[in-house]
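User: Predict the structure for this protein chain, please.
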Amino acid sequence: MMKLDPFYTLWILMILLLILYITLLARVAKAEPDIYLLRDVICAYETRGEPNRNTAVSYANAVGRCQILPIRAEEIGCMWWRLNITWYSQLCALLILEDCQLRFGSRLWNIARCYNPSRSYIKTIAVKYAQARMLIAWRGR
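Assistant: Here is the predicted structure, written as structure tokens:
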């Protein structure tokens, strides 16, 4: 009987895990997203590395923890000068995501594209959302 080299066994295992990860990512991207989890993922990603996430202002003048543009905040009925309050910024982000879901459908990619149309942003949010879903599944939430 032929014995497999441990090096090749490890490579085969890593390839199988990569295929599983890509399959799970594709399934998560097609499923209707948990809008609250998506909001948390977006808000965490938007102000990563900022010393004070609540008072962060981007070069495009997006404000607060979830980096919402003042004009977009006014479109959905939020007061832009309150976006530096954590719960208010998250509430406005949730309203924006729900508006995006109503206008563009329930696919994760469409909602993320509505929030920020950058292709690299959409891919990053999809991956981070899938990672958050898998972490929740492993913890048994």
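The chain has one domain: 33-136.
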